[in-house]
Amino acid sequence: MLNRRKFLEKAAAAGMLSLVPGMLKANTEAIQNPLKKSLPAFISTWNHGIAANAEGMKVLSSGGSVVDAVENAVMLIEADPENASVGIGGWPDREGIVTLDASIMGPDGNAGSVCFLQNILHPVSVARLVMEKTPHVILAGEGALLFARQSGFKEKNLLTPKAKEAWEKWLKESKYDPVINWENEPNKYHDTIGLLAIDQKGDLAGACTTSGLAFKMHGRVGDSPIIGAGLFVDNEVGAATATGMGELVLKTLGSFLVVELMRNGRNPMEACKEAVLRIVKKDPENVKRQVGFIALGKNGETGAFSLQPGFNYALYQEGINEMFDSKSYY
Ligand code: SD4
């Protein structure tokens, strides 16, 4: 079977697609999504998505719910100290403090999130308890930590020596300028994981977890814990999640937009592209920043689109778990 990159290369050679950067802007034709449409499926952001997808599929195959699957899938990445932008090992803010944002959403439309949470290894699990055990959707900072403690979570220093060293180096210049695609630099950085899943019954769920942008201002909250921005699931239609410069996603409520576009008939890739175009139109910062969306439709169809080249995602479907490069605006 052709993988997506091969398909695109062949399609481009046959003149079916415009792959030249910049030409996408002018291409108003519907994008044919070459990906499969089958259940179950897991799709997630960046290289670490492969391991997360595999974990999620394992949970689903051993009888877990789709919410169990997305939670456990991203927990694997949260617990990886080598990962510089999720959970332990995450790069700190400019005060040297690691602060975490996470969200989760299930097929019943329920959602939970935590933001500006400190010293907890698995923010996504706290977010799940906010969803299931409280009358609220978001808990922040001290309140989120108090709730986590009361729910039995143990506190842990999340600033690893490597992350501390990176911060101390950064302090010398103290220049805040997030780097495009820092996520996939070999052996150096990774980033936020946003993961979407659909089970055999067609129920959808999603989770998103991050330590946010390195060297952000203390107290900064990104898009990941904001339902509709960093994550959105509508079990009638589909699900979407975002990665990259959260401020651009927040100002356009990107994940909600992607799902609403799918509701109105766009396929997941077209919907992600449209959300990126919205950012291009509205936000002058788009030129020097990265944002990537992934989406999953009710029929198992998937799609992705990003501002800049270099965004990739992992898709596990029909027994194959593999990486794809996203198409991009630039
Ligand atoms: C944030 N969207 O905090 C996250 C960071 C991220 O790839 O996804 N980076 O803005």
Task: Describe the structure in your own words.
The chain has ten helices and twelve strands. About 30% of the residues lie in helices and about 20% in strands. Residues about 1-30 and about 185-190 have low confidence and may be disordered. It has an eight-stranded mixed beta sheet with strand order 4-3-2-6-5-1-11-12. A four-stranded antiparallel beta sheet has the order 7-8-9-10. The chain has a single domain, classed as (Glycosyl)asparaginase (Glutamine Phosphoribosylpyrophosphate, subunit 1, domain 1). β11 (about 310-315) and β12 (about 320-325) form a beta hairpin. The longest helix has 15 residues, at about 270-280. α3 (about 50-60) packs antiparallel against α4 (about 65-80) and α9 packs across α10. The protein has about 325 residues and is of the alpha+beta class. It has helices spanning about 5-15, 25, 50-60, 65-80, 125-135, 140-150, 160-175, 245-250, 255-265, 270-280, and strands at about 40-45, 100-105, 110-115, 140, 195-200, 205-210, 230-235, 240-245, 290-295, 300-305, 310-315, 320-325. Bound molecules: N-hydroxy-L-asparagine.
Topology record:
Blueprint lengths: L3 H10 L9 H4 L14 E5 L3 H13 L4 H13 L21 E6 L5 E7 L5 H11 L4 E3 H10 L10 H13 L19 E6 L5 E7 L20 E4 L3 E7 L1 H5 L3 H10 L4 H15 L8 E7 L4 E5 L5 E6 L2 E6 L5
Parallel strand pairs: 3-4
Antiparallel strand pairs: 1-5, 1-11, 2-3, 2-6, 5-6, 7-8, 8-9, 9-10, 11-12
Bound molecules: N-hydroxy-L-asparagine (SD4).
Distance separating the two termini: 29 Å
Poorly predicted sequence stretches spanning 5 or more consecutive residues? 1-30, 186-190
Named CATH topology? Glutamine Phosphoribosylpyrophosphate, subunit 1, domain 1
- Name the overall outline: globular
Mean pLDDT: 87
